[in-house]
Amino acid sequence: QFTPPVPDNVDDETIGSIQFVENFAERFGPQHPMFFQGSLEDALKEACHRPSARDRKLLAIYLHHDGSVLTNVFCGQLLACESIIQILLEHFVLYGWDLSYESNKNMFLSSISACVGMTASITVRNIPTDRLPAILVISKNRSQCEVFQVIYGNVGVDDLLSKLMEASDMYSEQLKIELREENERFAREQVKLEQDAAYRESLEADRAKQEAKRQKEMMMQSERRRLESERAENEAKRELIRAKARSTVPDEPLQSSGESITKIRVRTPAGEMLERKFTVDTPLELLLNYITAEGYLIDEFKVISGWPRKDLTTLNHESTLKELKLYPQETVILEER
Description:
Elements: H1 13-28, E1 35-36, H2 40-47, E2 58-64, H3 71-78, H4 82-91, E3 92-98, H5 102-115, H6 118-125, E4 134-141, E5 144-152, H7 157-204, H8 206-248, E6 261-267, E7 273-279, H9 284-293, E8 301-305, E9 310-311, E10 329-336
Parallel strand pairs: 1-3, 2-3, 6-10
Antiparallel strand pairs: 2-4, 4-5, 6-7, 8-9, 8-10
Helix pairs in contact: 4-7, 5-6, 8-9
Region (Disordered): 204-233
GO molecular function: ubiquitin binding
Domain UBX: 257-334
């Protein structure tokens, strides 16, 4: 006749859990799950009260009772099954307690009420002896621990394994939500920390920034003067080019002169239209000079004509407008290079 794993009237939870593990192994053999040794509160901390949700596990509390006919089979066969041992090791923290003596049952009820809550205590109290042993699965949902699942002793190996896997899978899905929220919270905290650090650095470096600002303003002023001088110089060069081009453009021919005349329209990038008459024997260069004189230098603009499109600036400038078929009228389009 075996005595219950935890002696009657044990007055220390940690000692009781150590005795439970020793007596369990002596009675049912070395092939059994690894039980957490310590108080229920310590087991709950190990499983549920981790800083990050990614480190949490389910707490599986094995509730033993020598008065149940299911005990020997449950302990000797189900808890000795390698697949059961493995899943408990990977996904749970396993804590064992013996309810055989009323004194130890009351100690456990008081402890679980304090650690998890009155609902968990009532759940255990209401489990009839003939349904023990049982595995009470405790989870932490955000900040609250609660009974996640109760697995009673009248199950087979496959059923027990299935229930444990189902609990683990369901809890993993629950943790995904918490992990996402945790990551979002961490990101917000990081932003806050970075903002605070930046603010402190800003205060510490204020004097240096003022000096840097003054230096920057002086450099910008110097750069503005340089750019203004450069722009004036470039504008003077452009004006010189325009004036030189303007001096080469002949007077616009009169329609009554008897010469063959073509009318050239020039569409600017702004959508405006320039219009000028030329004799058909005018070389292309003079048309380009006219466009230059109007402020559109051929180094800066393409002169597009015809279909398929061709850039007149790339053609022989000595060719006449007639040879280029730019008569009796033609519209050319200016495009920035």
